Amino acid sequence: MGAFLRGCVLFVLLAGVPGRALAHASDSGIKLLLPTGYYLVGGTLAVAATVLIAAVMPARWAGALFRPRILWRGPLPRVEILTSLAGAAILALLLWIGFTGTPDPLENLLPLTVWTLWWVALPVLCAVVGNLWALVNPWAGVFALAGGGGVVRLPERVGYMPATLLFLGFAWFELVSLSPEDPGGLARVVAAYVLFTFLAGALFGWRDWVARGECFGVFFRFIARLAPIQVARDGGGDVTIRAGFPGFGVLHGPAISVSGALFILLALATVSFDGLSKTFPWLGLIGVNPLEFPGRSGVVAANSIGLVGAWAALAAAFFACILAGRWLGREGGAPMAGRLALTILPISLAYHAAHYLTALMVNGQYAVAAGQRMLGLPEMHVTTSFLNTVADVERIWQAQSGAIVAGHVLAVLLAHAAILAVTGDRGDAARRGAPLAALMVGYTAFGLWLLAAPTGA
Question: Where are the domains of the chain?
Answer without folding.
Answer: 2-68+256-452, 70-243
